[in-house]
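Raw record, unedited: Alpha/beta fold hydrolase
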Amino acid sequence: MSSLLNYKREGSGQPVVLIHGLFGDLNNLGVLARDLKQDFDVISIDLRNHGKSFHSSEHSYPVMAKDVSILLDSLNITSPIIIGHSMGGKVAMALCEHYPLAKLIVLDMSPVKYHTRRHDNVLAGLDTVLSTKPTTRSEAMEQLAQHVEIEGVRQFLGKSLYKVDDYLTWRFNVQSLKANYLNILDWQPITKTDVPVLFIKGGDSDYLTVEHQPFIQQQFSHPKAHVIANTGHWLHAEKPTEVLRAIRKFI
């Protein structure tokens, strides 16, 4: 199994690296990639334990940031602009310790430890699908619905179903993500960096709040913030035009 992350590369120009969140893959930020590839060299990646990248029992921000830096080195990429959403935002911030970045854009995430377990229902649903080995997509979605109420979340998770032998299973490594869930909530503060950073917050989301401001200022010398009104944690999916406008203005 390759220890290099799976990726997709499109366009040309200054490199822009897109990093998805938990339970996602390199297509999650596709709405951003489709626009940015007109002017930039866009590299969309699958993090470890996600998409078509390798599975590992280790899953923490230092190791995920190292994975990304190894990939960027192998592609001879210098001074990339990094854009990360949610868990990918934390990977992007951790990357400041591993790689010289031109700019950093963090979508709805703070450099802090979170204490709320938001994904227990999702993990239970994923487990149910693993144990029942559904043979059709509709069967898998029914199993998921026993635990995950929100249709949009089920559809999002469903994108990572694929067929092995004659049943459906998940591309992501459910066991490792469960075992490392506290690592995903966790955060070890990075050494204060001069990398210019833009935090884009979903107006209705509580992942990035006023209480987090001091922590951001302790770790970033030049932070900027932009709020997208009437949108939640999935701001790039809900309001792509506004998110892209903020990204392009910053870069």
